[in-house]
Specification:
Residues 1-26 form the signal peptide. This is Leucine rich immune protein (Coil-less). Keywords: Leucine-rich repeat, Repeat, Signal. The structure is a single chain. The protein is elongated. The protein is built from one helix and 21 strands. It has a 13-stranded parallel β-sheet, with no helix packed on it. Strands 1-3 form a two-stranded parallel sheet. Strands 6-8 form a two-stranded parallel sheet. By secondary structure, the protein is mostly beta strands.
C-alpha cells in the first residue's frame, strides 16, 4: 500500500491484510494509526512523515522496534506499540535524535518482552509515561535514572523481585507492579517520595506493615488486593500522611486492627477476606469508609454519618 502525498492530518488503517506500507513525504500528517495488520516491522518510510505527533501500530506482527527509526521526528509526543509480537526494543542511533526532546509517552504493553534496558530511555528527557504492562519481563535494570518519568507500569509480568535501590526517578508519582510474582514489596520503595499511587496487587505477599512505606507522605492510594496476606499491620505513627485509600480485598486476613489510624480520612477496603472478628467500637474515627462485604462478619459503612448514627450492623455476613 502506498500513501499519497495529500493534505492529510490523520490516517487510520484498520483490519486489513496489510503486509507493507510506503509513506511518501508528507508535511501535514500528524496522527497515524495502523491496527490489525500483518506488518512485521515499522515501515522504513516513516522517516518521510516528520510532522507526526501521535503514532500507533497496534495488533500487528512487529517483532523488533528500533527507536532510531523515529530519530528525526521532532514533534512526536506519543508512540503506541501495544499488542504486537515485540521481543526487543533497541536504539541504534549514533547521534542525538530530535525525538529525544519530544517523546512523552511510550506504550509497549501486551508484547513479548522478557527483558528491557531501561537506561535506553534516559536519553528521552521529556518522557513521562512508560507502560510495559502485560509482557514476560522477569528482570529489571538495577541502575536506572530519569528526571521526568511520572508513571511506570510494570504490571502483568513475571517479576519475582524488584530491587529499586539504585534507581533515581525523583518525579515518579504512579508505579504499578500489579500481577507479578513478588513475595515482598520492591526494595527501597521509600526512595520515591513523590509517589501518589502504588500498586502491588495480585502478587504473593504474605505479610504487610504500613511502616514499610514510612516517608511516602504523598502516597494517596495503595493497592494490595489479590495477594496472600494473612497479616496487615496498619496501627503506627509511621503512616503515609496523605494516604486516602488502602485496598486489602481478596486476601486471607482473619482479623485486622484499625484502632489507630493517624490520617484525617481513610477508606479501607477489606472485601473477600476471612475476617471473623472485628471491633467496630474501637475503630479509629479516621476510618471514614469501610468495605467488608464477603467476609464472615461485615461492619461496612459508607460515611462517618452512617457510622455515627449506629446504622452499622456487624452481623454475620451471608457469603
Amino acid at each position: 500500500m502506498k500513501v499519497p502525498n495529500a493534505i492529510l492530518h490523520s490516517l487510520l488503517i484498520l483490519s486489513t491484510r496489510l503486509h507493507f506500507i510506503s509513506l511518501v513525504e508528507n508535511q501535514s500528517l500528524s496522527d497515524l494509526t495502523i491496527s490489525s495488520a500483518k506488518l512485521t516491522r515499522v515501515p522504513p518510510t516513516i522517516k518521510n512523515v516528520l510532522a507526526l505527533r501521535n503514532v500507533t501500530f497496534m495488533i500487528c506482527k512487529i517483532r523488533t522496534v528500533d527507536l532510531a527509526d523515529f530519530c528525526d521526528h521532532s514533534l512526536l509526543v506519543k508512540l503506541d506499540l501495544n499488542s504486537n509480537h515485540i521481543r526487543y526494543v533497541v536504539n541504534t542511533a549514533t547521534r542525538h535524535c530530535s525525538l529525544y526532546d519530544s517523546l512523552k509517552s511510550l506504550l509497549l504493553y501486551s508484547n513479548l518482552l522478557t527483558t528491557i534496558n531501561l537506561n535506553m530511555f534516559s536519553a528521552f528527557p521529556q518522557l513521562s509515561y512508560l507502560t510495559l504492562r502485560n509482557n514476560k519481563i522477569k528482570t529489571l535494570t538495577h541502575t536506572f535514572g530519569h528526571s521526568a518519568l511520572e508513571n511506570i507500569n510494570l504490571g502483568i509480568n513475571g517479576l519475582e523481585e524488584a530491587n529499586l535501590c539504585d534507581w533515581s526517578v525523583p518525579n515518579l508519582s504512579r508505579l504499578s507492579f500489579r500481577r507479578n510474582q513478588l513475595t515482598n514489596l520492591p526494595s527501597c520503595i521509600t526512595i520515591f517520595t513523590n509517589l501518589t499511587v502504588l500498586s502491588v496487587a495480585g502478587n504473593g505477599l504474605a505479610n504487610f506493615s504500613i511502616e514499610s512505606l514510612a516517608g511516602l507522605d504523598k502516597l494517596q492510594e495503595l493497592e494490595l488486593e489479590m495477594n496472600s496476606l494473612t497479616s496487615a499491620v496498619l496501627t503506627s505513627d509511621l503512616f503515609p500522611k496523605d494516604l486516602q485509600t488502602i485496598d486489602l480485598s481478596m486476601n486471607n486476613l482473619t482479623e485486622i486492627d484499625l484502632s489507630y489510624i493517624p490520617v484525617h480520612s481513610l477508606r479501607v477496603i477489606l472485601q473477600s477476606n476471612a475476617i471473623e472478628r472485628f471491633d467496630l467500637n474501637n475503630t479509629s474515627p479516621n476510618v471514614t469508609t469501610l468495605e467488608m462485604a464477603y467476609n464472615p462478619i461485615d461492619c461496612s459503612f459508607s460515611t462517618p454519618l452512617e457510622r455515627a448514627m449506629k446504622h452499622v450492623d456487624c452481623g454475620k455476613n451471608r457469603i
